[in-house]
Structure formats: structure tokens, C-alpha cells
Request: fold
Amino acid sequence: MLALRDVTVRYGDTPAVDDVSLDLASGQVLAVLGPSGCGKSTLLRAVAGLEPLASGSVSWDGADLAGTPTHKRGFALMFQDGQLFAHLSVARNVAYALRLRRTPSARVATRVGELLDLVGLSGYDDRLPGTLSGGERQRVALARALAVEPRLILLDEPLSALDATLRERLAGDLRAILHAAGTTALLVTHDHEEAFALADRLAVMRGGRVVQQGAIDEVWREPVDEETALFLGYARVLRDDAARRVLDAAGLPPAYAVALRRSALVVDDAGPLRAVVESARVTPELVRLVVTVEGVGTVDAVAPLGGRVAPGDEVSLRVDVTRLALLPITP
Amino acid sequence: MRRIAALVALAAAPVLVLGVLFVLPVAGMVAEGFVEDGHLAPGAVLDVLARPRVHRVAWFTVWTSGVATALAVALGLPAAYALHKLALPGRAAVRAALIVPFVLPTVVVGVAFRQLLGEGGPLGFLGLDGTPAAIVCGLVFFNVAVVVRTVGVAWESLDPRPGQAAAALGASPWQVLRTVTLPALRPAVVGAASIVFLFCATAFGIVLTLGGVRHATIETEIYLLTTTVFDLQAAAALSVLQIVVVVALLALSARLRATPDPTAQRTVAPPRAVRRSDAPVVVATLLLLAAMLLPVATLVLGSLDVGDGWGLDNYRALATAGEDQALLVPVTAALVTSLRTAVDAMWMALLVGVTVSLIVTRRSHSVAERRVRSTLDGFFMLPLGVSAVTLGFGFLITLDEPPLDLRDSPLLVPMAQALVALPLVVRSLAPVLGGIDDRQRQAAASLGASPWRTLLTVDLPVVWKPVLAAAGFAFAVSLGEFGATSFLARDTDPTLPVVIFRLIGHPGEHNYGMALAASVVLAAVTAVVVLGVERLRVPGVGAF
Reply:
């Protein structure tokens, strides 16, 4: 298993990664989620051995990797844009690490065939990277990284260079492939959808520090502070009276702060909250509203399609308790 | 069609200039060999090419150039890595020091090597004086900078991530170099090697001073045949041979040189801290630096040696015309002539070079247009490879009667030198102009900027430094130009390289001492200009 202890990486005087400790058990996928510039890519490069540590340690199965250069770590790194070798064919790219190990060519050929099959690119052997689409390139990069069965695979925003539909499809494939191969993976991303699609565990990073980590549903249900909540896709954070009012309406004990998703308040004639509609926008699945709730302020709400809700209307709202999170913060 | 017509109209002026000042003289020189009594007589040329001496000369040219190229690449690659990828202390200074030899006047380098390798010189015991080995050393000394520059600039802007991806896949540093880095650098290495071969094969001053009559290359043989034997037919035959080889080589190197994607921004990877494992590369670089400084140091020491101690006598003597009236004018007068000539050559090379660069880098809208542009591009590269001697002699025999009687014009020498410098100017400016994303110009135009205004606000801010740098290079090249100048400069109005060559050819201890002192002065002036250019930090200048 991978263990990071108090890892700090500096660029000049500014710490890009500040005192980060993480654990990753074998066979698991950990996503490090954070906004761009938070130091997550630097962390990944430090694990790969491409950035020197200012202090702290990276170890695998208890052995410190400080003196081990990148090529001896057995960690495959997959870049955001694949970084295929443009002068080699697809098959030669996938076979790259196998050839380094002087694998007999018959074995190389079968393994390349298997891997291209696994990523759904059989028959692409002789194509050059320049002729592939973005998604195909990422698949080849994945096959190349998996070729020598690395003990850890490092993924740097593997899907963010792709367009939305492709991203969704490849995310499912990637997860299935990682699980089928039983690979341990460390993934960094700024997109919580990507993290949810791929990972078992989640670490949230901000300003070079890890602010929260745990099982992915746990982190998602209990964000540690307001910024984390907003980054995880919660729309608004209410405090004090506003929070108490909403919790009361939900039948929950009072707390200082609560984070609401956009669908936490639902139009319902039997609901306990009264509100005035500010604006309404129809989406394919429901109507998204912005409403002003007495004693709470401006919040988001949803109404089922077909209902007639227009700005200026008075509506009643109920609270969906699965769409909110209590924040463990105090004034 | 209208665009092509406009393009041709714009290109007319520089094409005319190159036509009259380059094609005409070279064609005149060539015709000298082929035309006999007004009839075409190619047989004589073939006879010349069958001579055993010509075979020997051709073979000597090829093998010395080949060996020198291989050595320059072998010595240049480690230095390119150390100076462009590692955070060595003082690397900017070392980089600047290594670029100086490239523009040092050939005659000066010849003198320095004779001083170094000759009897009584620090390396005299090696017995290399007057051997082919000395010539090869001189050629390497000259051209290592081209390799360091060209490959170094390519290396530092190489995307580091493919190498890192390879390392993460288990490739050792050596394997990364072999399987990822070198393939990516191949265009730069091949480009540098072919240009170095070209420079070696057409080197003149250095071969003449080090090899004399005994070891002649095609270039010096052309000179000897025209000036001492007066066998113009043979000289013309050799010129043709050289032009054919050079054009073929240029075409080949243009094909091998990958065209960079103009929309890709050039990013320079920050230099890496030096590690213990870098020791061999660093040592190789330091040895190279020492080897480069040695001839220069010997030259300076030699110029201060006045027989019975040290002094500035040789420098004082520069105000005289030398012992036994070796010269018609004092050396100081020649220096003034040199500087004046260089200024004229500089503005001429810039005027033509900037126009040509603008023409060849504008985006083409059709295949035909692109073809016209790339033909022009190749056309203006021609002076790079055609022997300066051929050019100089061609000037003499074609521009001597009205309406083109330029023989007495003070601009004759600057014109020839400007032509020699022209390819360097174009090579410095064209990549910069070509690297400006055309969409920037389109954006400016869409915001209401006229073409003139676009040039002023989009192109000029990017290009002014390279223009200044190219001007400096043209100036330096012109200062040191010897091949064409040796034909064209009048005895009463010689340039400094010509004077130095006269002085070493004349007997007399004092004349030799003066030659050394004059060489130091010329080298110093050139070095100051080039170091000034270096301070502008234009990455492409001096790279090919």
C-alpha cells in the first residue's frame, strides 16, 4: 500500500504541497479532488518521483521511496493528454515498457493484443498517435500504463481533455478496466463527477493541503466546511437562524450550518416553508426555481415538470433530507 | 490569382537584387567554364573533373568536412544538454563564450591555430601544424557553436512529459534518452549536422591559412586556380560541382528539418538542478570550453610577445603599414574601412532580409501561393552554400561593364558581404515571424486595424529584438568576411581580414606580430558585437 507522510513540495519559497498525509490500500482507487492550482498535480508528480520532496516521505509497503528514481518505482503515470510517443505506432507505444524489459517478442505481441482488446481498440496496432481521436489516445495511454501491471497507476485528470459524452462513456470503461485488472490507482481531478465515477475514496485538497479524506459517500455526505461543500456541488450554505429554520422544517435537530444542494427544497403544497418565486427555468427533468423563503433568504428549489410556477407566485416547500449536509463548523 | 500577383510584385525587388548581385555573377563564373569562343563546350568541364588532383581535392573536402561534422556533433551534444537543460552556474556566460568562435573571422581563427600548433606554440610538440588534423580542428572550433545552439534551443523547448511518461513506464535515464529524447531531437541534430557540413565544405579562410597549397579543398582550389594558375575553366568546373552538391544538400536538409507547428507556443522548461550523475556531461562541457579558449588565449599571448618580453609594441605597430612596406595603408585605416563596410553590409542585408522574411512567412491561401513562397524561401537560402570565392570572382567578371559597372563603387564589397550575411538574417527572422499566430493578425484586423497598423502592433513588438540581433550578426559576419572580399577589396582600401592575410604571407617577425595584434583587435570587436546580440536573449539567432 501507498503511504504519504507529511509530504511537502516547494517551488522556490511557496509550498505547492503542504504537509499532506494520505493512505491508499492495495486494489483501491483514491481520487484527490481540488480546484486548479491547489497542488494536486504536483502531489501526483511527487508520488511518481518527478518532483523532489522538501520534507516528508512517500513509501510503498513500508519501504521509503526517497532514493528510488521514477523508473524504478513501478508506478505508471498517465498524463492528462496521454503523452503518447508520436514517433511510435499504437502497438509500439503499448509495448514500450515490455520492450524495455526485453520481453520475448511473441509474448509482447499477445500482451499488446490483450491490452488493446481490454481498452476496446483491437486492430489499431499500426496506427500512429496523430491519427487517433482524443478518447482513443487516452485508451492507448491507459493500455500502455497497464502493460507491465504496475503496482500503482497514477492518473492525472484522465478524462478532462475529452468532451462530455465521451467522458461519461470512458469513465465507466475506465472503472471497469481498473477493477478487472485489480489495479491500485491514485487519481487527481478538479471534476467531482469524474472523482465519483472512478474512485472508492476521496481526498479534498485546497491551497496545498488535504482538508478532508475518507470513503467517497462519507465525504460527500459530510463535507468538512463551506468551501468543501461548495466544491462538492452543494449550491448554498445557510447559517444561524436560516439553518435552524430549514432543519426544523426537515424535522432535524438544530445545527449552526447546513449545505443545500439545488434540489434540497421541493415545491409541495403540504410543505412547511412559505416562499415567493423569483425566477423559474425549465430543464428536461424538472423546473429549477430561485425562491425567497421567509426568514431564510434566497435559495434554490425545484418543482416537478408540468406544475405552473411563475415568478411572483407564492409556494409551499418541503425539505428533502437526502439533499442536504450538516457542516461541522461553529461561529 | 490576385494574391499571387501581389506576392510576385512584392517579391520583385529582392529577387531583382539577388538576381543581379548573386545569380548573374555566379552564372558568369560558371559560363566562364562552359563557354569557349562563344560556343557551349561542356567537354572541357568534364575533362577538368577527370583530373586526379580534382578527385583528390574533392575527396579531401568530403572527408575533412565529414570528420569535422561528426566531431562537432559529438562534442556539441553534451554541451547543448549541459548549457540548456542544467542550472549550471554561469551558463549564460559559457553559452555566450561558445557562440563567439562561430562569428570570429576565419582568418583570425587560422592565425590562432597556427600560433597554437606551430613550432614553439603550446601544442607544437604534437606536430599537427600543416596537417589535415589541424584543418579539422579548426573546422570543429568554428562549428561546434552551431550544434550547441541549434540542438540546445530545440532541447530546452522539448516537452518534458513524454520523457517523464517513459520514466514512469520503467525507462532508465539512458533509455529515455535513446527511445524518446533523441528521436524527438533528430530533426534538430540532422539540421545542425547538415548545416555544419555545408559550412565545413565551403570553409575558405581557415583552410587557406592552415592548409596552404598542400591541403586544398574545393573552395580553396577554386581560389588558387583563379588567382595563381589563372585556369578559369577548371575553377568554373569546380564551382559547378560545388553548387550542385550544396543545392542537393540544402534540399535534403530542408526535407529532414521538421517544420514546427506555428500555432504551438514555444515553452522553455526551467533548468534542472545539477546532480552527481551529470558529472560526465559537465566535465565534457568544461573540456570543450577549455579547448575553445586555448587558441584564443594563445593568440592574445602571442600578440603581447615582443621577442624579449611582453609589451604592446605589436599594437603600436598597427598604426604603420608594416615592415618592408608589406601594406599600402596602415592597419588602423583598414579597421576603419572594415567598420564602414560592415555598416553598409548590415543595412543592405537587413533591408533585403526583412522584406524576404515577411514575404516567405505570410500565410498562403492556395497551394500555388505556398509553392511560390517556398520557392522564394529556397532561392534566398542559396548564398548560404555557394562559395564566397565563386561569388567574389563572379562579381569581378560580370559587374565590370555598363550598365552594371560596379567595380569602382565603394558599395561593391558591402554588397557581396550583405549577400553572404543574407541567409543568416532570413534564418533568424523567418521563424520568429512564422511563429506569430496568424489569428492574432486577424484579430487585430477584425478590431479595425489596417494592414500597416497590424504590422506595427502585432509583428513589430515580437520582431524588433530578433531584427536587432540579426543586424548584429550581419555586422559580425561582414566584419570577418574574407572569401569574397579577398577578390573585391582594392589594395588601397583593404578590410582588416585581408590585411591580416597579407601580413602573415609577408616575411618578417614584425609583420607576424602585427598580424596577431590585428587578429586580436578584430576578434575583440566581433566578440563585443556578438555578446551584445547575446544579451538580447533571442533564442533562434545562431541556430538553424
